[in-house]
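Input chain follows. Return structure tokens only.
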Amino acid sequence: GGLNPDLEYDTVTDIDGNMYATIEIGTQVWMAENLKVTHYPDGSPIPEISDEAEWDAMAPETQAYCWYDNLVVYRDTSGALYSWAAAMYGGLSSDTIGVQGVCPDGWHLPSDAEWKILEMTLGMSQADADINDWRGTDEGGQLKELGFSNWSLPNEGATNTSGFTAVPGGFRSAKGLFYSISDYANFWTATADEEGSSRAFFRTLNFEEERIYRHYNSMQLGLSVRCIKDQ
């Protein structure tokens, strides 16, 4: 597990003082760890919602974070799970350069288009990048952390040649239930599926898959966040 020892990483520090490894992939620079910040870049706290009924009752614009199973032990491996509105700090959907949202100064929540650039850098065709569901060939494997310290067996195709070091964070459903801590990595994008929607695009990696899943779902989900550096 861990970072790719053959690559050179840099670092970025969030408002809480957490330091993250960062990695250059093609023309982009990405965090190589899941975000775990509990304050926005202006220092204001992100509301923590642990209660299942309270999470279930959230509106699409509710900003919230939690730890998987509400256990802080997951903080340093999996990071936090954020509602879309929290990831965006209430910002409006973008499909060009994303939105700073919860990310440190000089960084932002990647848009759907920026995820496609990453995927195509790793070899995915434009045609595959533009469709939903499981796409490409081994691009997800190139993103996934090696081994089984975080991922379930067989961690299909994992090479981490990109240095992205994707780890599974599971997710929190719109109803407030937790699922799949070792099986799925799910990352928000800054892009809603359409204007005024209550759904946003995300990416998924899976322990049995070396491709990358793209779709949109309820903004009430709690998903992981990876930030990308401003260019």
